[in-house]
Amino acid sequence: AAAAAAAAAAAVSPRTARKREAARDATLQDLYKVILLDIEGTTTPITFVHDVMFPYARDNVAGYLDAHWGQEECMADVAALRAQAEQDARDGVAGLVPIPSAEGGASDEEIRAAVVANVQWQISIDRKITALKQLQGHVWRFGFHSGALKGEVYSDVPPALDRWTEDGLRVAIYSSGSREAQQLLFGHTNAGDLRSYLSCYFDTKVGHKREAASYREIVMSLGCEAREVLFVTDIYEEAVAAREAGVAATLSVRPGNKPLPADCPFPTIGSFARIKPDEAHHPLNRL
Q: Model pTM?
């Protein structure tokens, strides 16, 4: 193994060797302008999302519908979920729960009951679609504002956000949860309101997180070059998509996260305190 490593090192071109040496002496702000963060499994424990956030939405969706039925925002949520259910029917999605309409003769009570059943089914299979995330965000809004919910972040996250912004880096969020839900979570955390550190929020309206086009769209919105963005996520396939778009990627390894492939080519971190240029400036991402 040692001989193979030595041979590989010898095969590196002088130009690549110089780049790697420069990376060791560089700081994050020398290499990047934006740190783009995932939430679940990256800034926030997966257990919080699955054991607190999702159950709250599941258990309180009926109350949300009862309290807001007839209001424009609520009815837009219902219309989006119905449209998704119709698309699911066309796609032959197993287990889907249809949502009837008043035009079809359904009563408000029947529609609300179908929406609750549809949402609970989607949550049970951990779907990441925009219509569901939009409704969840509105249910969570009440929970955060009432104090029933409080966001959780890892202890190393607040000092890292403070350090990065102090160094002139922009910090943005890209999550499958709606932008409103992201702001609610970071505005009501166990470490206080962290929104002042965050410059942008992106959700699945820019595209799915496993598609390179989504990261190209984010780069365009950020107004910088792809190589000036470092994406931190716990999902291998998302890192692959980011790299395909020219964005550097580092994988978050936290307790409870999904295991990574044995031959994973990306740098990994267990804490934001360990995001250093020599790790982030990985040759497969940047050279």
A: 0.78
